[in-house]
Amino acid sequence: MNEVSPGLHVVGADLPRTDAIPKTTGAATYTVDVSFPGMLHAKVLRSPHAHARVVSVDAGDARNMPGVHAVLTRDELEGLNPVYGYFIKDQPIVAIDKVRYIGDAVAAVAAETEQQAVAALEKIKVEYAPLPVVATVEEAMAEDAPELFEEEPMGIVPAYGQGASGYRRIGRNNCYRFSYETGDASSFDDCDHVFDDRFIFSRDQHFHLEPFVSVARYEGDVIEVWTSCQNPFPLRKELARVFQHPENLIRVQVPYIGAGYGAKNNCKAEPIAILLAKLSGRPVRFCMTTEENFLTQSQHAAILDVKSGVMADGTFVARSGRILLDSGAYSDASPLVAEKAGYRLPGPYKWQHLDIDCDCILTNTTPAGPYRGFGGTQASWASESQVDIIARALGRDPMDLRMQNLKDLGEAYVPGESGLDSDLRAGMTLVAGRIGYENRESGNGRGMGLSVGFKDAGGVNKPAQARVRITTNGGIYLQCGTVEIGQGVHTALSQIVAELLNAPLDRVSYPALNTDYTPFDQGTNASSAVVVMAQAVQQAALEAKSKVMTFAAGQLDCSVEEIELDDWSIRKGNESHPLPLMIMRYYGGTGYEFTGEGFYKAEMDHSAPLETRCVSWEFGWGAAEVEVDTETGLIHLKQLVVSGDAGRAINPKVCRGQDEGSAVMGLTGVLFPCMVYDGAVLMNGNGLDYKVPLATDLNDGFVSILQEQGHGPGPFGAKSVGEGCMLPVASAIANAVEDAIGVRIRELPLTPERVLAAIDAAS
Amino acid sequence: MSNELVFVSFRLNGTDVSFHVRPEEMLIDVVRDRAGLTGTKLSCDLSTCGACTVLVDGKPAASCGTFAWQADGHDVRTIEGLAGSDGTLDPVQAAFVENSAFQCGYCTPGMIMLARALLDRNPSPGRDEIRQWMGANICRCTGYEMIIEAVQDAASRAGDDK
Questions:
Q1: Does B44 touch chain A (CB under 8 A)?
Q2: Is residue A718 classed as helix, strand or coil in its secondary structure?
Q3: Which of A126, A515, A634, B79 is deepest in the core (most CB within 10 A)?
Q4: Where in A531-669 does DSSP place strands (E)?
């Protein structure tokens, strides 16, 4: 069934997205649009100190302010498990004993208007006893550094398989280490050359235009929350633990999401909205401002030390690495990001020995968490920069050296792992050809660079369930927990169902997500929808179809092999039998619904380092051409060619949007200032001072090429495309800069100051 | 904060409306909370990202940075006022649909209003002019190329109608 077939009519077609009309007419409902009679508005008092003991919180005056219905301080946390986190439970709903960064939540107010809530916050008196601050990873790791957590918070280290391990608190402010090792460490001894480089990675903020926002209310004992969240089921589990409330009495609903790029996982606005709803007895909306987004979640800045041993003929032999991730003030998803950054550092090359540690270092800054690329962006920046450094040192062309060392299609990534499901050399040749790499003129301020970004896709040990229902008249409901966060996944999964049921796309609906009746899913992340969830969806659709066919064959007194499903009729030879009549004849005039269930999870496998073999591998091939002004240090991006492999594109335009969107997002960390800290003070955390790429920052030299190599594990050979094309951008541009002016820059972003400093240092 | 209310009347998507507003009340609050037109989205709240773009007398305006009283006597159009009463999409909307020129959709109402204003000014802008004009608003999802193509397509559609 899922072979690449020329007969497909829905899969592979550039159909308009199923959310097109609501999103272009203003009808689409987002969490910001959810409103109830009597709904209150929440505002949060945030810490002005980067690190301080909270001596006292006096909210007495705030409670008497006009319009105020509830005030939340640490005194209101009694009876709860008031700290949350992914692996490590360390982040309180509001500060308990300490504040750990500027912006840490200290108290909250629910009032009839936002203005009243803000006015009440000003009446809350907080006494702080400031503590020494660690603003950077280096400061936090110093022997005499003050610790953000004097005691070890509750948490776990997950199980790992062959070669991988995890550790907690093995150094000052070190909240987690992921390690991976394979092969013989002595292989470095046999290498002709060893390269040791330090790379610095910038810290972007997701800058999703819809802020963190939740609306909560109590319906009797049921906690009901509408929220802009990409993993509602793990959120439900965490809320049940925090509020000590039965899971079946927590209802999470997810309207359209105004994007997240990773930020909208786990608790954000939800706990405060829910607790204020409980305290006030009214629905509460907590909608953060853009400034508060900057104080809630960021990408991980990173320091990456990479040592690579190679032979004189260019053969890659051994790589070791140590990555330091700036985790900010709470662990959040840092352990998971560390796992991925560490695991992805080798890149898709034929190494014989690997030895990598990735440490998460807590600092008194905004908590860092999931961000598109999930550690892979940091890893690809360092890995692909160093490949060019090696090539130049050996007098080799960087593309040629890559072609020599890239893994082959189907070759296992590391021992115990699955095989790579794209032809890496084909992608390399494609982008190099498009940009004109072979006949480029290097030097005199102009040059080209290449890169292949790399990550695994599909998450680790990720279960997904789906249900397909078909009504008497052929209406199809696809119920699954993958959220539409902008990526077009409702459209893609619906196209798969339509294809499998020989139905036009407009017969498929995708009901809004509600944890009360939507089948379970671990979350919309890790580029997993078309390689994990889609396999569950496929199974559900085929089971529903099988039930329809068995029923119809029984009614027509023939075998299933003699009939075909043709839209919502049964074709038997030259006869066409409409299904509605057949169904009502048997089940009665009110009809019936056929249902199919689907489930997918990669098998446990202890020989795989992450305990399941990676479902798929996501690549982004990039080629950049730059012109560098050596007087000003400005980099002018003349061309940027990116390419992803969709395996089989379910909807090519949607795939293109993912490739181009992720590439431009990747530009932020390269050519824009990113988050600028003065000590522990964020200097540009608002929509005016923070710069993200605009249409005018690009030109017609930016193109994407969609590959369909056909090797993906998803239905019809599909692969993920959500993150790949952001991975190669930084290194391709830095490699092009070296090609242009002979100077290697190892620190992002590539600001004019850094370019000029690198030129000065080289001369 | 003054407690005195200001009486304002203006045209909103072709209908005369009037409200008593607080002096500090912004146009976006009136549009969203009083008129119930939630298609217009608030994001940066600093008149820079353009998510809240509406047309005031045909010109794009950040409704988060426009006081409600400033709309008095003017003609305001929001995303809800673009399609015909029979649901026929404006050529800009149709082009955004068919070119997949949106993803999360949060910037889309603002982008569509911005593009509408451009085409009202110049029905056949070149690609560079479109890029410059659309550079006023932020989209964090698409990488902009498909938006630029949609505006080109919308211009050609409008041309075909004539």
A1: yes
A2: coil
A3: B79
A4: 563-566, 569-572, 575-578, 594-600, 616-628, 635-645
- In chain B, residues under CATH classification 3.10.20.30 are 6-81
Q: How many Å apart are CA A568 and CA A546, to the nearest integer?
A: 14
* Residue B29 forms contact with A (CB below 8 Å): no
Over residues A346-361, mean pLDDT: 98
- In angstroms, what separates the C-alpha of B80 from chain A's closest C-alpha? 6
Q: What percent of chain A has pLDDT over 70?
A: 99
Average pLDDT of chain B is: 96
In a shared domain, residues A634 and A652: yes
Q: Which of B46, B49, B102 sits opposite A23 (nearest CB)?
A: B102
Which residue of A34, A209, A694 to mutate against B (max B Cβ within 10 Å)? A209
Neighbours of A144 (CB within 10 A): 6
Contact B41 A17 (CB under 8 A): no
In a domain, A147, yes or no: no
pLDDT for position A9: 85
- Ranges of CATH 1.10.150.120 domains, chain B: 91-161
Q: Which residues pair with A508 in a beta bridge?
A: A476
Residue A241 placed within a domain: yes
**What was the pLDDT predicted at A2?**
33
* Per-residue pLDDT, A7: 55
B42·A24 Cβ contact <8 A: no
Closest-CA distance, B108 to chain A, in angstroms, reads 6
Interface contact B2, partner A, CB < 8 A: no
B46-59 burial: b if 16+ Cβ within 10 Å, else e = bbbbbbbbbbbeee
Residues in A touching B79 (Cβ below 8 Å): 24-26
**What is the ipTM metric for this complex?**
0.98
Q: Calculate ∠ Cα A533-A535-A538, nearest 5°.
A: 110
pLDDT score at A497: 98
Helices (H) and strands (E) in chain B, counts: 5, 5
In whole angstroms, what is the distance from residue B149 CA to residue A529 CA?
27
Instruction: Give the residue numbers spanning the domain of A596.
Output: 20-29+462-600
User: In this predicted structure, what is the pLDDT of residue B161?
Assistant: 52
CATH number of the domain located at residue range(s) B91-161 in this protein:
1.10.150.120
Domain B6-81 falls under CATH 3.20.20.140: no
* pLDDT score, position A763: 85
| pLDDT score of A283 | 98
Res. B159: pLDDT tops 80 = no
Of A262, A294, A326, the position where a domain reaches its end is: A294
pLDDT digits (tens, 9 = 90+) for B18-77: 999 999 999 999 999 999 999 999 999 999 999 999 999 999 999 999 999 999 999 999
A374 shares its domain with A348: yes
A571 beta partners: A564, A576
The number of folded domains in chain A is 3
Minimum distance, in Å, between the CA of residue A72 and any CA atom of chain B: 26
Contact B44 A17 (CB under 8 A): no
pTM (whole model) above 0.95: yes
In a domain, A722, yes or no: yes
Report the residue from A26, A657, A665 with minimal CB separation from B79: A26
**In chain A, % of residues over pLDDT 90:** 98
In this structure, the answer to whether residues A678 and A724 fall within a common structural domain is yes
Distance CA A410, CA A183 (A): 20
**Domain shared by A503 and A649, yes or no:** no
Mean pLDDT of A585-609: 97
The average pLDDT across A32-56 equals 98
From A294, A317, A338, the end of a domain falls on A294
Q: What span, in angstroms and rounded, lies between the C-alpha atoms of B93 and B98?
A: 9
Same domain, A646 and A745: yes
At residue A8 the predicted structure's pLDDT band, cuts being 50, 70 and 90, is low
Q: Give B-chain residues touching A657 at CB under 8 angstroms.
A: 100, 103, 141-143, 146
CA distance A464 to A621: 29
Q: Tens digits of per-residue pLDDT, A648-682?
A: 999 999 999 999 999 999 999 999 999 999 999 99
CB-closest option in A26, A487, A692 to B109: A26
Kindly determine whether residue B143 and residue A661, on different chains, have CB atoms separated by under 8 Å.
Answer: yes
